[in-house]
């Protein structure tokens, strides 16, 4: 079967500056392929900014604007309005930002853009920390994960960005992973066809920051979904939750075992993380409807 990547030229060129095995570059490649050439990207300081390259050079075949770390959603809002004034309402405006510039430093501008229902697609490439500056913790970093700023393990849980943005009543908010590629492509296509504010939160395991093997990123992405640590779901108009992958065939311990940032974690801490994932899963089941053709457990 012919794929989107075969039908369209690559929007992310080879020779970029991503680390070997980088899941962020792979994720961006598929997102941009689904969006197509009539797209403009806003990319704040982040790993993605390094991958895209320093201006005026770029590894992307679409226009790129690099704002300050905290202002991605505001910059995208202004770009959207400028394009509309030119009669280019069909041109997609996409933000490609990391979790540091989304969960933390950019949250104020992000919440404001969602409240105004700005017609932008915001893609958070969530590698669960400030990986571009030495793997410090962010509010996306999970409980007990060791980072350069939490060497004994993070003492607090990960923030639920998707639920926070969904609570603004935006048209679309969803999680996705390149480890489940058909689901990712479908969600990008769905978001592209909508108007108003749309959020996609993509889990992008960081080979270096998480302590994975060079070829371990996709395995970690799949295990995160399969144990329920990163459930795949979507929320429409802030109220309609749909669970897209309703199975949990593995324990959280399998996922943790892949990552050096959890090495040496005690059995009691592993059990606590399993309980937290179970609690989050039950919360989602209470809100969600099953995807078409799938029964909830």
From TrEMBL:
Domain Thiamine pyrophosphate enzyme TPP-binding: 65-200
Any GO BP annotation: small molecule metabolic process
Assigned keywords, A-Z: Oxidoreductase, Pyruvate
Span list, region Disordered: 135-157
GO molecular function annotations of the record: oxidoreductase activity; thiamine pyrophosphate binding
Origin: domain of life: Bacteria
InterPro entries referenced in this protein's UniProt entry, alphabetically: PorB-like (IPR051479), THDP-binding (IPR029061), TPP_enzyme_TPP-bd (IPR011766)
Polar residues bias locations: 135-153
The UniProt record lists the keyword Cell cycle: no
Keyword flag Oxidoreductase: yes
Transmembrane segments: none
Descriptive protein name: Pyruvate synthase subunit beta
């Amino acid at each position: 079967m012919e794929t989107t990547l075969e039908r369209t030229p690559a929007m992310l060129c080879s020779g970029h500056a991503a680390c070997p095995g980088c899941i962020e570059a792979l994720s961006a490649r598929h997102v941009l392929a689904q969006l197509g050439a009539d797209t403009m990207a806003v990319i704040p300081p982040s790993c993605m900014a390094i991958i895209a390259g320093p201006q005026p050079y770029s590894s992307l075949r679409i226009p790129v604007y690099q704002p300050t770390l905290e202002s991605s959603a505001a910059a995208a809002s202004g770009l959207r309005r400028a394009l509309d004034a030119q009669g280019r309402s069909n041109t997609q405006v996409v933000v490609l930002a990391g979790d540091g510039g989304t969960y933390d430093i950019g949250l104020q501008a992000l919440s404001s853009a969602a409240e105004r229902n700005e017609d932008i697609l915001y893609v958070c490439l969530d590698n669960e920390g400030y990986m571009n500056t030495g793997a410090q913790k962010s509010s996306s970093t999970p409980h007990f994960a060791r980072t350069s700023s939490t060497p004994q393990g993070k003492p607090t849980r990960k923030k639920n960005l998707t639920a926070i943005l969904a609570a603004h009543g935006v048209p679309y908010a969803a999680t996705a992973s390149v480890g489940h590629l058909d689901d990712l492509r479908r969600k990008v296509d769905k978001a592209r066809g909508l108007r108003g504010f749309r959020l996609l939160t993509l889990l992008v395991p960081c080979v270096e920051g998480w302590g994975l093997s060079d070829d371990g990123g996709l395995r970690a992405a799949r295990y995160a979904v399969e144990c329920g640590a990163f459930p795949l779901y979507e929320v429409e108009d802030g109220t309609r939750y749909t669970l897209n992958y309703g199975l949990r065939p593995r324990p959280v311990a399998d996922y943790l075992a892949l990552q050096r940032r959890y090495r040496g974690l005690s059995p009691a801490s592993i059990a606590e993380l399993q309980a937290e994932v179970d609690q989050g899963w039950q919360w989602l089941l209470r809100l969600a409807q099953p995807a078409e053709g799938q029964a909830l457990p």
